[in-house]
Amino acid sequence: MRSERAIKNLITSVLQELTAIACGLLLPRLVLSHFGSAYNGVTASIAQFLGCAALLRAGVGSVTRAALYRPLAEGDMGAVSAIVNTAETFMRRTARLFGVGLLAFAALYPLLVRSEFKWLFSASLALILGVSTFVQYYFGSAYLMLLEADQRLYVHHIINIGTTAANTAVAALLILAGCSIHVVKLGSALVFCLNPLFVRAYVRRHYALRPDAPPDAELLSQRRDALFHELAGFVSTNTDMIVLTVFTNVREVSVYSMYCLVTNAVQKLISTASASVGSAFGDLLARGERDTLETQFRRYENAVFSVSVVCFACTAVLITPFLSVYTRGVHDVSYHRPVFGCMMSAAAFFACVRQPYKTLVYAMGHFRQTRAGAIAEAAVNLALSVALVLRFGLTGVAVGTLFAFAFRTVQYAHYLCRRVFGWRFSAFCKRLLVSAGNVAGIVACASRLPLSGVRSYGDWLLCACAAFAESAAITLAFDLVFYRAETLGALREFFKKWGDTLVD
Based on the number of CB atoms within 10 Å of its own CB, is 208 exposed (0-12), middle (13-18) or buried (19 or more)? Predict the structure, then answer.
């Protein structure tokens, strides 16, 4: 059952991200061509600022999921109901607080972009973009935590696929019909409001939750420690956009958002499977299956490193040629930033390869033991980004993010090796060196591709296919030389479970 759900989560998460990538590439192009870089930049900037709302619920999701693993494994629906009711009460209080904060933000944000847009334009746009976040917090967040802990995220993935496709269709039709940016974003917001309502309906139908179950007073006792981890995640995700909004202009923000569109899509494609793996780890911990946990962790770690090397080495060499084609005809700012593209790809690589360590730390509930690293990551990212942005612009903030991500990845790995498994930390250092050699081989091969001559999507696709095939072959060779047991074991298990799922 555990493996079957993990496979379902993996397949649907990949389909969800492929849908998000396809739709995410279509809409920004329409916005750029019909409204311009300034409009694209201001909507991206507002969305990033609204990400600050995540701080209001920071730590709750992590401790709720960790608390749900044992009662779900034991079938104790009374305890599950108490935990879900506690989380729902907190999230509704958070939603109301977010509503008040949204009004304040809508009043103040226009001052940052007053040279480009009038106050009423920016304020009303901020209110529209915040609607779906309010609905998500008020109606769906607690139920989503339950689905994730119970390895049923495939339900949310399927719902997301539907709402993402519907949003793209609605927004594209409104843009092509000549509607204003406000009408377009309002249409998108209304579509995404359906997402939490569908999740809520599914959970209420398939789980025997007890609405009258008393709240769990001890549930949020670790929230303060988990808060530091999510604060670090918030800083890593939002610092760059906020710093660029304050110290540069909305056109530079637009450039940043377009590169993020690509790197984030690749990153999410890799990391969304971690949610299902995290709940599987939580189940193994709850059942005390330590040997199985160590074996599965090593395979998972090796798979994430291998896939990340292939994807982000290719991204580093292909991202700028792709965006040159994608933004053809847009001349209000240059999107040709190859050094920045490489930095963003490297930062996203570390964001992905930390997932095995982060996932297990969260599943174990070791928030207090690792919070110092979370604080340090946030400080490094913010300090370097602010210090470097005035001189190096986009590249400066990317350097800050890269250093912060690399530091946090090393800190996670050190903690697990020394404090949890009793492994030698040198094994992780070896993995980084092997990955560096792997990337060097991929880049050397990719340098022979005619990337400078890319003039169309067809040209780019041919180069991308060649780069991916070469990267996959080189990476498989490295894995079979340095990590043969983990690689063959993971491949055998994956194809066996895949076959069993198809038969069922």
Answer: exposed
**What's the pLDDT tens digit per position in 368-412?**
777 788 788 888 888 998 999 888 888 899 999 999 999 989 988
Whole-angstrom Cα distance, residue 307 to residue 478?
12
Contacts of 60 (CB under 8 A, 6+ apart): 87, 90, 91, 94, 220, 223, 226
Beta carbons of 239 and 382 less than 8 angstroms apart: yes
pLDDT of residue 6 exceeding 70, the answer is: no
* pTM score, whole prediction: 0.69
- Copy the structure tokens of residue 279: 């709940």
| Inter-residue long-range contacts of 126-130, CB under 8 Å, 24+ positions, other chains counted | 126/46, 126/49, 126/50, 126/102, 127/102, 127/103, 128/182, 128/185, 128/186, 128/189, 129/43, 129/46, 129/47, 129/50, 129/185, 129/189, 130/50, 130/98, 130/102, 130/105, 130/106
Instruction: Read off the tokens for 285.
Output: 């911990």
326 HSE (CA, 13 A, CB side)? 25
State the Cα–Cα distance between residues 180 and 34, nearest whole angstrom: 10
pLDDT at position 254 is 83
Q: Which two tokens stand for residue 246?
A: 């304050």
Alpha carbon 215 to chain centroid distance?
Answer: 30
Tell me how far apart the alpha carbons of residues 233 and 415 are, in angstroms, rounded to a whole number.
18
pLDDT at 469 over 90: yes
Helix (H, G, I), strand (E, B) or coil at 42: helix
- Specify the residue for token string 């780890």: 281
Q: Decide: 239 and 381 in contact? Cβ < 8 Å.
A: yes
Instruction: Write the single-letter amino acid at 103.
Output: L
Check residue 335 and give its pLDDT: 83
Cβ–Cβ < 8 Å for 194, 167: no
Q: Name residue, tokens 């670090």.
A: 232
Region of 365 (left: φ > 0; alpha: ψ -120 to 50; beta: rest) is left
The set of residues, in sequence order, having a beta carbon less than 8 Å from that of 79 and lying 6+ positions away, is 71, 216
What are the pLDDT digits (tens) for 205-253?
888 788 777 776 666 665 566 666 666 667 767 778 788 878 888 788 8
Q: What CA–CA distance (Å, rounded) separates 285 from 182?
A: 48
Structural contact between residues 377 and 408, judged by C-beta atoms closer than 8 angstroms: yes
Helix 141-149 vs helix 77-108: crossing angle, to nearest 10: 130
Q: Whole-angstrom Cα distance, residue 310 to residue 313? A: 6
Number of H helices, E strands in the chain: 20, 0
Q: Which residues contact 144 (CB under 8 A, 6 or more apart)?
A: 156, 196, 199
